[in-house]
Design brief:
heterodimer; A: mainly alpha; 16 helices; B: alpha+beta; six-stranded mixed sheet; 25% helix
């Protein structure tokens, strides 16, 4: 297992380096440049030259990359003039908020989606299955922003049941105003339930068709034992993989929800950085999302291997 | 006039988007925008009013001597000046862009010796720690500026403090400035003195957090050290709500809480000595990263007391009225235009001909643009000095416009200068030469009247007007090849250039904005239209214009000749001036009007009603 982890981590480092090189290069190909974006429409050439010199932007791109990389390795992700804050502190402020939003939503979604998917698989091709399939397909194919707007219209505008805006301020504000978390959480949960329940249903159906299930039945095992003693564990594999791959979503995929609800998370940070050409923040977010993707993929592999001995054998982990 | 505020202009592009659409009110009004809600009840003391900030325009810098990266309306007019007042306050009770003596820290300055000596006398203002605001605090600002002028965003070579020969503190209330020459008193007061922001010497004249307060500012090296210290402190935004440096204020509000992203909570300063004491207990600035999010909150009828209606949601105005909001357009003190490159090797000779520029201006149907894409939330604009909000500078000639929409005038101008006009085709020069009835210098026979026009994409209003413009221009055979580019691509070209430079290849450029007169409210053209000035991105050069501009700065004449000449000459193509925003003000909130023409906030006048 140690060898497996080392190999995967090495791959992860290489992937992250490549991603950072590509993104750094692409950002510097964008027209305009950070100085003009930050200093505005009427900055004079001398203003721009002074800014570039002060921030090392007059150096060749490889030199700039090297400075940035050595900074990252020492924990310095750069400084955002747009936000007047270091990138590290921005990420430290926003990441927990997004993680909190996504974690609650995903846990809620799992609590709903797994039983629903199970129910559908067991009752496949019956009225209940068709009804739930219809609902989940509709939700799965509906854009998150549209669901968010519908929820706002009904629950906030018409019923005045909950606020239309997420809690503002520090991380603790999320706990001080739980009502304001309802709509952002609900939006992500609804979308995620639809996806997870579809996967769960498919996975359970696959397992129910396996020989070991017929064997267990022929040996007189009860339906409950078969489902929860055998099928559940095996069907969990693909779902765990999906969950691992959801980690980057947790970091960045909440963008739409954060945008609609003015939720001060990392998705919104990335969006604003992109629109204002805030290079340091964009690079910082890319590093974090890239790391989350690699770690998520790694966790998915490990989780799958732990659940399925066949994977351990084939990967040489055992 | 100086450089426009960065975010202000960025917002101008957004403003174009924000120029909304409800036909329920017009932006006519004389002042910066009525800004009055329908509040009629009995005043209630205290409470917290929440103001929604425009997307991308949240405050993030508290030290008033700010560097270029933080030079914005949101930082200066809507954040710093709540706590730190400038010597002269722009925006009077009628919403006009003029000095309001009652709101200013000092009495109107007295000019003497042929307008080369200025005597400033402070009023009875106090810092929040109870100490008086003195001329020492004014000198502190001047000393910091002199030692760090290249760092200050509003600094322009040759202007303040370069034009300050010396100063003398006469006593705690009076300071005398001796200038390097004679200056127009109005220009000097509005565009130089109004930027002076006295700072609390007793708190800020130090070089480290643990160091003692001293007179460090009185030597250049000490002043540099103080500036560096204060700048470093201003970059630590997590301490904005707690750092003692920012707690001693002479304005009506003290910042008590600031969050990353721009959330700011101010508490009323009980020692504020100005004419209008705060009635509210707290004032909150709430950042919104999208107009959608802000509108959703407005629609749900909660938390926002003073917000705005996004452009694309015009149909929501009546619903917001039902939710208890009053719609009020907020007029901006600025001028909108797009640029023509006088140094482009190919089209520069065409643009250099005033009659061609005048013909093009005659093909811009501003009234239709206002009633169409702007949905009524804008005003026609024919020169450097805006006709609205109402002001003492604009005159009838410019307001009416020497070149209003008239395709026949455009055709006539071209024909009379030797062009074969081909409506819906491309007109060509048939009579080359420099005679009065010929095409003009460096324009060969057969030259086509054709231009490329790059405009900023992503703003509905700009896109619509550019498409309409292409159609309008074709009436006189002026071909415009439109090209939408990202905003940042467009603004990257906004640099004066020479014909040989590759960066000079653009022909026409529209970034969807123009020029705002925020911190330099006297609308002279020294930075925008004077030959060689830093923000003269179109490379315009006209000796007569230079002479008239110089007269508004160094002479003692008004703006009439300057503005009329530029309106007549059309150095840029004048476009309608969009409103700054369409405000939505809670009917429970009173005292909000008039809205400031320079987009500053005065929540000390606001109060809730029963």
């Amino acid at each position: 297992m140690t060898k497996f982890l080392l190999r995967r981590c090495s791959q992860a480092v290489v992937v992250l380096l490549l991603v950072s090189v590509i993104v750094f290069g692409l950002l510097h190909l964008l027209p305009g440049g950070p100085a003009r974006a930050i200093l505005g429409t009427h900055a004079t050439p001398s203003n721009i030259a002074a800014f570039n010199k002060q921030n090392g932007l007059d150096s060749p791109v490889p030199v700039q990359y090297w400075h940035w990389l050595t900074g990252v390795l020492s924990g310095n992700l750069g400084f955002s003039y747009v936000q007047n804050q270091s990138v590290a502190s921005l990420l430290a402020d926003r990441l927990p908020k997004t993680a909190f939003l996504a974690a609650i939503s995903v846990v809620l979604a799992l609590l709903i989606a797994v039983p629903v998917g199970f129910f559908q698989a067991v009752r496949r091709n019956r009225v209940g299955d068709y009804a739930i399939t219809t609902v989940t397909l509709v939700l799965y194919s509906t854009p998150a922003f549209w669901i968010a707007i519908l929820l706002i219209d009904v629950l906030a505008v018409r019923l005045h049941a909950v606020p239309a805006e997420a809690p503002q301020g520090s991380f603790s504000a999320l706990f001080n105003d739980p009502q304001a978390m309802v709509l952002p959480v609900l939006t992500i949960t609804v979308v995620t339930v639809a996806a997870f329940s579809r996967y769960t249903r498919s996975s359970v159906l696959d397992e129910l068709a396996q020989d070991y299930v017929r064997m267990a039945r022929s040996h007189g095992a009860s339906h409950r034992i078969i489902l929860f003693g055998h099928v559940l564990r095996n069907a969990a594999g693909p779902v765990v993989t999906l969950l691992g791959l959801y980690l980057p979503f947790i970091v960045s995929g909440t963008l739409i929800t954060e945008f609609v609800f003015n939720y001060p998370g990392i998705g919104l940070l990335a969006f604003n950085a992109a629109t204002s050409q805030d290079y340091p923040v964009m690079l910082g977010v890319v590093v974090v999302v890239g790391a989350a993707t690699v770690i998520g993929s790694l966790l998915a592999d490990v989780g799958h291997a732990l659940l399925d001995p066949r994977v351990r054998v084939s990967a040489g982990i055992a | 006039m100086r450089r426009s505020l960065r975010r202000g202009l960025a917002v101008a592009a957004v403003a174009a988007a924000t120029l909304v659409a409800t036909a329920c009110s017009s932006s006519g009004g004389g002042a910066g925008g009525a800004g009055h809600s329908s509040a009629t009840g009995k005043p209630v003391a205290g409470g917290t009013a929440t103001y929604a900030m425009l997307p991308g325009a949240s405050p993030n810098y508290i030290f008033p001597m700010l560097t270029a990266a933080y030079y914005s309306v949101a930082n200066i007019e809507q954040f710093q000046r709540l706590s730190f007042r400038s010597l002269y306050w722009i925006g009077n009770g009628q919403g006009q862009p003029v000095v309001d003596p009652a709101m200013s820290l000092a009495a109107l300055p007295v000019y003497s010796k042929n307008n080369s000596v200025v005597t400033i006398t402070l009023g009875n203002y106090k810092w929040s720690d109870g100490k008086p605001v003195t001329t020492r605090d004014v000198a502190f600002w001047i000393n910091l500026l002199k030692a760090n002028k290249s760092q200050f965003a509003a600094y322009i070579p040759g202007e303040f403090p370069d034009n300050l020969k010396s100063y003398k503190v006469v006593n705690d209330k009076t300071i005398v400035l001796t200038l390097t020459g004679s200056y127009n008193p109005t220009w000097f007061t509005y565009n130089q003195l109004s930027q002076i922001t006295p700072l609390p010497t007793q708190v800020m004249d130090k070089t480290s957090a643990s160091g003692k307060v001293g007179d460090y500012d009185q030597t250049p090296s000490g002043a540099k050290a103080v500036f560096n210290f204060l700048t470093a402190q201003a970059k630590d935004i997590t301490t904005y709500g707690t750092n003692p440096l920012w707690k001693t204020v002479d304005g009506p509000w003290t910042l008590v809480n600031y969050q990353s992203g721009g959330y700011a909570k101010f508490q009323a300063n009980p020692n504020y000595a100005g004419p209008s004491k705060p009635k509210l207990q707290y004032f909150v600035e709430q950042p919104y990263t999208s107009e959608t999010a802000e509108l959703n909150v407005l629609r749900s009828g909660s938390t926002i007391d003073y917000g705005y209606l996004p452009a694309q949601e015009s149909s929501q105005a009546s619903m917001l009225a039902n939710q208890g909001y009053t719609t009020s357009p907020w007029l901006s003190w600025g001028t909108t235009f797009f640029l023509m490159n006088y140094h482009n090797p190919k089209t520069g000779p065409l643009i250099a001909q005033p009659y061609i520029r005048q013909a093009m201006q005659s093909l811009i149907d501003q009234s239709t643009f206002v009633s169409g894409p702007l949905k009524g939330y804008g005003t026609t604009n024919y020169g450097p000095v805006p006709a609205k909000p109402s002001n003492p500078y604009s005159d009838a000639y410019e307001a009416k416009g020497p070149w209003p929409y008239s395709p026949s005038t455009a055709v006539k101008l071209l024909k009379s200068h030797g062009w074969t006009v081909t409506p819906n085709g491309v007109s060509t020069c048939a009579s080359p030469g420099t005679g009065a009835s010929q095409c003009g210098k460096d324009i060969a026979a057969g030259t086509k009247l054709s231009f490329s026009l790059e405009y900023a994409s992503g703003t509905e209003y700009v896109t619509q007007t550019m498409q309409a413009l292409k159609s309008n221009f074709s009436q006189a055979g002026i071909q415009v090849n439109l090209s939408a580019q990202p905003f940042n691509s467009i603004i990257s070209l906004l640099t004066p250039c020479t014909p040989a430079q590759s960066s000079c290849s653009w022909q026409m450029l529209n970034y969807g904005g123009g020029w705002t007169y925020g911190v330099n409210p006297y609308p002279t053209g020294d930075q925008l239209f004077a030959t060689g000035s830093g923000s003269n991105s179109s490379n315009y050069s006209d000796p007569q214009a230079d002479k008239l501009i110089q007269a508004t700065v160094r002479g003692n004449v008004g703006l009439t000749q300057f503005e009329d000449y530029l309106a007549q000459q059309v150095p840029v193509l004048w476009m309608p001036q969009p409103d700054y925003q369409i405000s939505e003000i809670s009917n429970k909130l009173a005292g909000t009007g008039p809205q400031s023409p320079i987009e500053s906030l005065t929540p000390e006048n606001w109060y809730f009603t029963q």
